[in-house]
Amino acid sequence: MLRILTVVGARPQFIKASAVSRCIKNHFSDCFEEKLLHTGQHYDSLLSDIFFRQLNIPEPAYHLHVGSSTHAKQTADILQGVETVAIKYAPHLILLYGDTNSTISAALAAAKLHIPIAHIEAGLRSYNKKMPEEINRIITDHLSTFLFTPTHQAYINLQREGLVHNIGQPVSPDNPIIINSGDVMYDNVLHFQQMAQEQSSIIQQLGLEQEKIILCTIHRDFNTDNELRLQNILKGLIGIANTFQHKIIVPLHPRTNAMLNKKEFRELKQSLSKHKNIILCNPVSYFDIIRLVSECEMVITDSGGLQKEAYFLRKPVAILRNVTEWTEIIETGNGWLVDDSPLLLLNACQQAITMLHGDFPLLYGDGNAAQMILTQLQKSLK
To answer: Catalytic residue among 38, 119, 219, 246, which?
Structure first.
């Protein structure tokens, strides 16, 4: 039995991990034993018992409870905690997702202990090293033995950086295996879409049964912690609400909500709260997000994951950044980089709502990424 230690630190990583955990349970239970380590990088009240039951995720076997801190302290605390658990559990593989401080810290711990690393969502590049996520991606990729890319472009990115596999040579971080597996998030959307439709009541709760809707999320610190950027984005939402009759649903991230409660935002928050076409609400569950994306006409977000979920469900997306790691969404004509510009945001909404966007080719695999990942690991780790 091969032991896998999966390290996660935020709700999106639990969601991604659920696809692989589900596949282990259903198809590879005689080959792999998986234990989850939750670093506690992000506290999330939505990580409830219901969350784990809905997604059929095993409860974490290990908790580090590191909490929010500076990048340096958080990375150091996770590095030390993962090392301690890895020495105790002695896994044959450490499995990592995405680009958080949990990802890079666990990668460093594994590399120093000479434990093979499998990185899911490898090869993504925004080519903007001001984003800490970009640094985390690059370092994790170059420490990994197994690199599973969600798209062909991500595969090409790794080749350009010199990460190639020499057939006939032992598999190692110096000779990694690179597989374009597709995206485990696509696996999940296909698996959970019908359940979300049946179990989520968010449309009824918000009184949206007869409404056309736009979903907006804002959570990146470069947007939430920058007063001018956040003001521009929120003014852009008001401009959309004044132009169209769609209801704009804005689940408020704690950082966004904290900023709105400052006196500098008092008038702007009142304008948002009183606008007939804007609905501010508390953070919502994964099933609620899938239901809202399914029902909306477009998405506005700075989230990497939500960009893809919009694409999977064939919804155009305005991206509140000046770069994105999911370049295919832009290239197919289904997404627009609007940064914090109210004018660019309005233009993107006009294109999205009038259907002036592209088709949605299958760029993220066929919905069987987890199966491909585990098949490769089973073959290579024996």
So the answer is: 219
